[in-house]
């Protein structure tokens, strides 16, 4: 990497809806190995749909609480929460979404590996949103271009952990 350490106060910030993604390490700076970010999610924030992608993810929750909806191979959805100090790994290819279902903001350090698909998607959607509210067709196109499959609304949760 060309710049260590990263000053969070001056780091690049992408906005996706109400969520903020502070870029800490780009895929370019890590030879494609990862995309590391600080995710700041307001109450009600997070991706509105289930999705899957090849990169794995690791969430280290710093403040607040994140709710993870994760589908198994049979389509059953389990809801798991992670609170400050907890770590939630997600294997690549796992249908999931992450939401802040509480009344307070939440923050997590997140690593995507490899980094290019999630970074490409995040940057492209942030660029669209900077101009105007992106259409679903535009988001679907950007997702497909970055190897991300949007799977639709979160199905009914069948179990909570």
Explain the overall architecture.
By secondary structure, the chain is of the alpha+beta class. It has a domain at 13-115: Jelly Rolls, CATH 2.60.120.10. The chain has helices at residues 116-131, 136-145, and strands spanning 13-16, 19-25, 35-41, 50-53, 56-63, 65-71, 77-83, 87-90, 96-99, 106-113, 148-152, 157-160. Strands 1-2-3-10-5-8 form a six-stranded antiparallel β-sheet, with helices on one face. A four-stranded mixed β-sheet has the order 9-6-7-12, with no helix packed on it. Strand 6 (65-71) and strand 7 form a beta hairpin. The longest helix has 16 residues, at 116-131. 30% of the residues are buried.
Which percent bin holds the helix content?
A: 10-25%
Chain-averaged pLDDT: 93
**Total count of helical runs of at least 4 residues:** 2
The percentage of residues in β strands lies in: 35-45%
CATH class of one domain: Mainly Beta
Number of strands: 12
Order of helices and strands: EEEEEEEEEEHHEE
Main β-sheet: number of strands, strand sense, barrel status? Answer: 6 strands, antiparallel
The global form is globular
Query: What is the CATH topology assignment of one domain?
Result: Jelly Rolls
Note poorly predicted spans: none
The span between the termini is 38 Å
Strand order of the largest sheet: 1-2-3-10-5-8
Task: Find the structural class using helix and strand composition.
Answer: alpha+beta
> What is the architecture of one domain at the second tier of CATH?
Sandwich
CATH superfamily assignment of one domain?
Answer: Jelly Rolls
């Amino acid at each position: 990497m060309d710049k260590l350490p990263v000053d969070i106060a001056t780091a690049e910030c992408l906005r996706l809806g109400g969520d903020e993604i502070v870029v800490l390490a780009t895929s370019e700076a890590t030879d494609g190995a990862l995309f590391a970010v600080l995710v700041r999610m307001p109450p009600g924030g997070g991706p509105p749909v289930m999705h899957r992608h090849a990169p794995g993810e690791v969430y280290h929750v710093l403040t607040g609480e994140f709710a993870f909806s994760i589908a198994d191979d049979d389509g059953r959805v389990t809801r798991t929460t992670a609170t400050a100090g907890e770590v939630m790994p997600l294997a690549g290819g796992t249908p999931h979404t992450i939401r802040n279902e509480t009344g307070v903001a939440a923050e997590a350090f997140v690593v995507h590996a490899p980094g290019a698909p999630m970074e490409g998607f995040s940057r492209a959607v942030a660029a669209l949103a900077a101009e105007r509210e992106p259409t679903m067709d535009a988001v679907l196109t950007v997702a497909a271009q970055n190897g991300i499959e949007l799977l639709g609304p979160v199905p009914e949760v069948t179990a909570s952990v």
